[in-house]
Design a protein that fits this description.
There is one protein chain. The protein is α/β, with parallel strands linked by helices. The protein has two domains: 130 residues, Aspartate Aminotransferase, domain 1 (Alpha-Beta Complex); 238 residues, Type I PLP-dependent aspartate aminotransferase-like (Major domain) (Aspartate Aminotransferase, domain 2, 3-Layer(aba) Sandwich), CATH 3.40.640. Helix 16 crosses helix 17. The structure holds pyridoxal-5'-phosphate (PLP). The site of pyridoxal-5'-phosphate (PLP) has 12 residues, from helix 6. It catalyses: L-aspartate + 2-oxoglutarate = oxaloacetate + L-glutamate. It holds the Pfam family Aminotran_1_2. Keywords: Aminotransferase, Pyridoxal phosphate, Transferase. It is an enzyme of class 2 (transferase).
């Protein structure tokens, strides 16, 4: 028997000598913030809701549910089934589609490892089971959308979404680009509080998008990471999905509870499919659930239980649910106030530029419209950390830092004018 050479051959060595993977554009900035010793440092990069004191927020209902679960004698660490916690999946499906559609038996809903795995499963179902070849992603998008599409064997295409001059949705561009998509292609849509722009479609615009999706037989995948956090109202924020469902379009929805329940590190989400028609003699919803479960088994096996128990308890208990929905309104109220404060601070300083859209967009984010070099100057000179496309998380602002952030924007706009196009 030949004894293997303990020293790897040159070709074996070079195979392992890989380049570093690209850094995540959002998390890299968050990391840089954590390493900044300046007491002035402000983090408006990562999309987590912070309260008026600058702390990552725990919802009161979540705390109550967490404490009650911790005190329970029936808590255990047994595996959940592949499809996760059934009670969470049904609460989530009711929240998305409403009780009537939920009870019609046309929904398959699986509890997942947060919104990210829900998205991977949605794309995986479209690609591996429904045979889609291409996925259309908004321009701009949450960077992870761009990363996930090829990972699920889909070709990436982009559709226009945001008009940087008008600081609003480019609905004509969006419709024109989706109008060229091929039958069976995936269109990835953000249901509300668009990341990174904060610019959402109005209901009548969603109806026009639904027309194109129906005519071209596209597969709509809704990413709903911020339900409730755009308007403060769960029903209003899901209007895009329900518009499609009412029109008889089959939809896939990736739901995250990271933001609207503040369960970021507990990783709670769902992926669901709502089919328009029941085929006689076939249980399509059950078959879709089995396909999603099969894909999930190969991806992460089964989801974690702890956060899901909390989420299901909050949504399933009338008192906790009412407390949660009230607090969502408070959170959205604080974000709205910070939007007004920032716009006001900029306009008062007569900073050159367009700031109206800060109060016209929704959810946590807004694109300021600064150039990359201005964003860099914000970081280096002022210790303010926003993403390279000048997205800021409004929920990272508070009374202690909003004037400081406005002052820094004023300084970079004044002193680093370049012909470079922002964003
Ligand atoms: C647009 C969008 N979709 C999905 C997610 C996924 O979130 P998570 O995996 O934390 O649930 C995020 C998180 O930032 C997001 O912004």
């Amino acid at each position: 028997m030949r004894v293997p050479d303990p020293v790897p051959s040159t070709s074996e060595r070079s195979k392992w000598d890989v380049l570093a993977a690209p850094r995540d554009p959002i998390l890299a900035i968050h990391q840089a913030y954590q390493q900044d010793p300046s007491p002035l440092a402000v983090n408006v990069s990562v999309g987590a809701y912070r309260d008026a004191g600058g702390n990552v927020h725990e919802f009161r209902a979540v705390r109550d549910a967490r404490l009650s679960i911790a005190a329970s004698s029936t808590y255990d660490h047994a595996y959940l089934p592949i499809s996760g916690l059934e009670h969470l999946a049904s609460q989530s499906a009711r929240l998305i589609y409403g009780d009537d559609v939920f009870e019609s038996g046309r929904i398959a809903c699986l509890h997942t490892v947060s919104g990210s795995c829900a998205l991977r499963l949605a794309l995986s179902l479209a690609s591996r089971v429904l045979g889609a070849e291409e996925a259309h992603v908004s321009l701009p998008a949450w960077p992870n959308h761009v990363q996930m599409v090829p990972m699920e064997a889909l070709k990436l295409a982009r559709y226009r979404y945001y008009d940087y001059d008008r600081h609003a949705v480019d609905i004509d561009g969006m419709l024109a680009d989706l109008g060229k998509a091929k039958r069976g292609d995936v269109v990835l849509l953000q249901a509300c509080a668009h990341n990174p722009s904060g610019a959402d479609l109005k209901e009548r615009e969603w109806r026009r998008v639904a027309d194109v999706v129906q005519q071209r037989r596209l597969v709509p995948v809704f990413d709903m990471a911020y339900q409730g956090l755009a308007s403060g109202d769960m029903e209003e924020d899901v209007c895009a999905v329900r518009t499609f469902v009412r029109k008889g379009i089959n939809v896939i929805v990736a739901q995250s509870f990271s933001k609207n329940l503040g369960l970021y590190n507990s990783r709670v989400g769902t992926v669901s499919v709502c089919v328009a028609d029941k085929v006689p003699g076939r249980d399509t919803a059950t078959n879709l659930l089995s396909q999603l479960s099969w894909l999930a088994r190969g991806m992460y096996s089964s989801p974690p239980a702890h956060g899901a128990l909390i989420a299901a308890k909050v949504m399933g208990d009338d008192t906790l649910r009412a407390k949660w929905l009230l607090e969502i309104k408070e959170v959205v109220g604080r974000i709205g106030k910070m939007r007004e404060r920032l716009r006001d601070e900029l306009e008062r300083r007569k900073v050159a530029g367009h700031w109206k859209h800060i109060t016209q967009t929704k959810g946590m984010f807004v694109l300021l419209g600064l150039t990359y070099s201005q964003v860099e100057r914000m970081r280096v000179l002022h210790h303010i950390y926003l993403t390279g496309n000048s997205r800021i998380n409004i929920a990272g602002l508070n009374e202690n830092n909003v004037a400081q952030v406005a002052e820094a924007i004023a300084e970079v706009v004044q002193n680093s004018k370049t012909p470079e196009q922002g964003c």
